[in-house]
Write a structure and sequence with these properties.
The protein is of the alpha/beta class and 266 residues long. It has 2 domains: 200 residues, P-loop containing nucleotide triphosphate hydrolases (Rossmann fold); 53 residues. The protein has 7 helices and 7 strands, in the order βαβββαβαβααβαα. Strands 2-3-4-1-5-6-7 form a 7-stranded mixed β-sheet, sandwiched between helices. This is AIG1-type G domain-containing protein.
């Protein structure tokens, strides 16, 4: 499997990009866990999968992994790494076109402190465009960008791609997703297909965490199924009770009518 972790600030378009990648892959490949719901702010790490060209592609969506003071959320970091096993192989740094604040400028530093100094060697910058009217090419956008953005891209090996998530630009997204997946595969291959090792956490610890998360997920499914079954049984009982009451009323009324017709003087 090839594992990819999407990282970025809230509102950058991580979830929109992930769903678009899966949706486009789903036109040719089988997809697990695809949600067609509108993207909202992600509060926990989530994993979705697709099978592309005979290979399993694992995409991990994440919330911000640090707070406004730059303090990392260690439990979320462990979650995203556990979900990305046996990876991660590639990190996608998601930036919204037209938005580059101090928060985005500081992002690489935060991520290197969390994942290690070699993080950038396994990272790709992904620009997400929401505006369907803008005709500016992404290369022109980068060449005219703030020096801090250009430096971030340079540290990531000058690897950057674009996804237009606007519904009115659906046709554009097919070649964009194809180019992005090609770039992801090339980067993973350049490292011999080996996953990026975050030395702070052992593989055993992350495997155990992944197991617990899966069991918790299955437990939630079981509870939901049990609740659904209980609700269905309750509806059936209520329906049967209502039908029984109606039959009693109907029977009583029928007997009264028969008395009037056949025994009018009683």
């Amino acid at each position: 499997a090839l594992s990819v972790v999407l990282l970025g600030l809230s509102g950058s378009g991580k979830t929109s990009a992930l769903n678009l990648i899966l949706e486009r892959a789903g036109n040719q490949y089988s997809v697990n866990g695809l949600s067609h719901e509108s993207a909202s702010t992600t509060s926990s790490c989530e994993k979705k999968e697709a099978f592309a060209a005979g290979r399993r592609l694992v995409l991990v969506d994440t919330p911000e992994l640090w707070d406004e003071d730059g303090v990392e959320a260690v439990e979320l970091v462990k979650d995203c790494l556990a979900l990305a096993l046996p990876g991660p192989h590639v990190f996608l740094l998601v930036l919204q076109v037209g938005r580059f604040t101090q928060g985005e400028s500081d992002m690489l530093g935060h991520l290197q402190r969390i994942f290690g100094r070699e993080f950038a060697e396994h990272a790709v910058v992904l620009f997400v465009r929401f505006d369907s009217k803008t005709r500016e090419k992404i290369d022109d956008h980068v060449s005219g960008a703030h020096s801090s953005l250009q430096e971030l891209i340079r540290k990531c090996g000058s690897r950057y791609y674009e996804l237009n998530v606007s519904k009115s630009q659906n046709a554009l997204s097919f070649p964009q997703v194809k180019d992005l997946l090609s770039g992801i595969n090339k980067l993973a291959a350049s490292h011999g297909g080996r996953p990026y090792a975050v030395r702070r956490f052992s593989v055993q610890e992350l495997q155990q965490r992944s197991k617990v998360m899966e069991e918790r997920k299955e437990g939630t499914r079981t509870v939901c199924l049990a609740d659904s079954t209980s609700n269905q049984q309750s509806l059936r009982n209520n329906f049967c009770s209502t039908v029984s009451d109606l039959l009693e009323i109907f029977t009583a009324q029928t007997m009264d009518i028969c008395k009037v017709i056949f025994f009018p003087h009683i």
